[in-house]
Amino acid sequence: MGERQRTIGYICPVCGKAVIAQRTAFQLTASDSALPCPCGKSELTITQMGDRCELTVPCLFCAKDHVAVCSNEALLRQRLLALSCSVSGLGCCYIGEEDAVFHAMEELEGAVDKLRLDDAMDTRGAFLDEVVMGEVLSELKDIVGRGGIRCGCGSADYGIKVGYSAVDLICARCGAALRLNAATLDDLDRLCVQTTLTIPGKKEP
Questions:
Q1: Model's pTM, two decimal places?
Q2: pLDDT in tens, 135-154
Q3: In this structure, what are the phi and psi dihedrals at residue 58, rounded to the nearest 5 degrees?
Q4: Whole-angstrom Cα distance, residue 149 to residue 199?
Q5: Is the pLDDT of residue 198 over 70?
Q6: What is the DSSP string of 46-106?
Q7: Secondary structure of residue 3 in the 3-state scheme
């Protein structure tokens, strides 16, 4: 059996093409890594910091680099590690098992294609997909109506922040947040099977 392979994907902000590559666990943890786009104008970098690593990801949506720190355990073992752009709420990098990364990248490319089409037709609205967002908010209203939202800290008080392609539930007591993506029909399907939602509460220091 060969060494564990990890698949990495992002969309180049310069040429707009998906960049997907595979690296072994040894390649990712033995030294710093770079995943350049074939166009030569952007690259994702992974800098090792002991048991953690720092990811620097070029972002198509806000045209800036996002920097995130994660454990090497998550880098090597999580089925799908997703980094999101805080401006758009959409993913900007996926690392994990090959099938999970390819599926996530297909969804992301679909969202990007819709953005480009909306821009070309000058029809970009308040949300990435008005229909999906409307249905997500309707489902959320049903869950709220039956008292199905709580925080891990024990509080049932929360606020709702509606973004361009996601909805955030924010606990009024501890400030923890749960992000519900609202960009694609898959996002809607995932919410439809939920009867309750739990915000991952922050523990008291």
A1: 0.58
A2: 888 888 888 888 899 999 98
A3: -70, 140
A4: 8
A5: yes
A6: EEEETTEEEEEEE-TTTSSEEEEEEEHHHHHH-SEEEEE-TTT-SEEEEEE-HHHHHHHHH
A7: coil
